[in-house]
Amino acid sequence: MPKKEVIKEITPKLIQKLVDQVNKLEENIELINNELKENVELINENIRKIKEEITIYKEQTEETIRTQEDIIISMVHKFNDQFLLEKNKIISDLEAVKTQFDVMKISFTVNENQLLEKLRTMIRGELKNVITGKEDEILMKLWIDELKQIILNFENLKKVHPKEFNLQIEEISNTIEVFKQKLQGS
Amino acid sequence: MFINEINIKLVVFGDGGVGKTSIINSYLNKGFPERYIPTIGSNISRKEYKLKDYFIRMNIFDIGGQRAFNPLNPVYFNNVDVALLVFDLSKTKETLIELQKTYLKKLTESSEDCLTYLIGNKLDLISTEDDLKEISDRFSIKEIPLILISAKTQHKVQDLFELSVFNFLQDWDNKIEDTDSRLSEEFLGFIRKSENDLNDLFTNLTNIDLHALKKKSTTKITKKVSISSESEIELPESLEKIKDTQNQIPKFDEIKENIINAYSNNLTAIKDIIINLKNTPIALLNEIIDKTSKDLNYFKEDFELKLQSILKLEKEKKTKHNQKIN
Questions:
Q1: pTM, full prediction
Q2: Is A138 touching B (CB cutoff 8 A)?
Q3: Which domain does B260 fall in, by range?
Q4: ipTM surpasses cut 0.85
Q5: Can you give the CATH number for the domain in which B320 is found?
Q6: Nearest by CB to B300, which of A144, A177, A184?
Q7: Of these four, A127, A185, B249, B319, which has the most CB atoms within 10 Å of its CB?
């Protein structure tokens, strides 16, 4: 730091010197002020320019976005329209397919019934051919099979409740009666 | 509604062709068959008498005598109440020996206490006492009562079965020991005969009077009308012997009808056996169920035999038919 000058006596020379110094300082300040002013103006100018640029850019960007939005919205609308169109078409096709399916189903059921009836008639015919004249033998064979089953379960009669016992006896007896009647009627 | 029911198992044994079925048919008024048709297995018929407080049901087991038809099935020999051992008076030698050798032996083993009668059938074919004397020479078991009958003329047939029921009821009365009500006497009243009338049936071999025997014979002969116009057919192997010996060829439909009728009759018999289980005392139930189960098995064999016979007949008929076409 410069060493402070100690004022021992205020003289006119000193005062002048001080006045000069003040003037010089004021000039400097003025100079600096002007310089600052210029700088501020420059900065302001720059800021303004930047602002303008930003505004332009913003407007351009907004424009772009709007355009893009419009495009997208347009695309979405187009897609929706297309989708709706396709959807309606598909629904219509589906309805047609469904109708066709129903028709086919009915047709299939009719055909199936006809086919089954035809099959049944054929089987009945074949069975009739095979069975005709052999009804007695078939009944006899069926009874023997039934009797085998009765014999197989006969032991269980020992374990059942009297009421159940009577029921089972009745059931066997009825079965025998049915076979007997069928055999006599065939 | 009857208070009591009595079931009698009467079994008719004897060689094939001695006339067992004809005797039963004669008794049941089914007529005398035109031609011999062998019984396949067994055929169970029934005759019922309704007394005041009792319902007497006689189950008559007609056992096919041909060996191919399993005449020794145990179901026929178990729990027999009355056994009729039938032989052919015109073929005493062959038919009587078989009775002694097989049937009587097996019967004694299985149903020791049953009432047994020796029945000489076809009395109508006998012309001299000498023919009958052979029985005396051949038959060594004298304690079995002998009765000579003719299924063809129905001579003593009705009496024979009534005697069987009467003697069974006598035994029954003796077991019950109820002096107030003797079923056997009630039965005599029902058939309007005396004990002497029935005892008259027994033949004394030492003093045979053929004329007296035949004098009582009726001449009622009913012929069974043939139901089929079908041409005669060859018989299956199992029936072939009969054709040779009888020189008659039964018609297919008649045989088949016979078998089916027998099958149906046996169904009735089984039904009775099953229904009777309901009346079994609880203490005896397990035992009776076991016995019934065995009987059912024997019946099953009999049903199978009948079915096989029909199938064989059908096959034979078809073969014969094809031969005719070719």
A1: 0.66
A2: no
A3: 4-325
A4: no
A5: 3.40.50.300
A6: A144
A7: B249
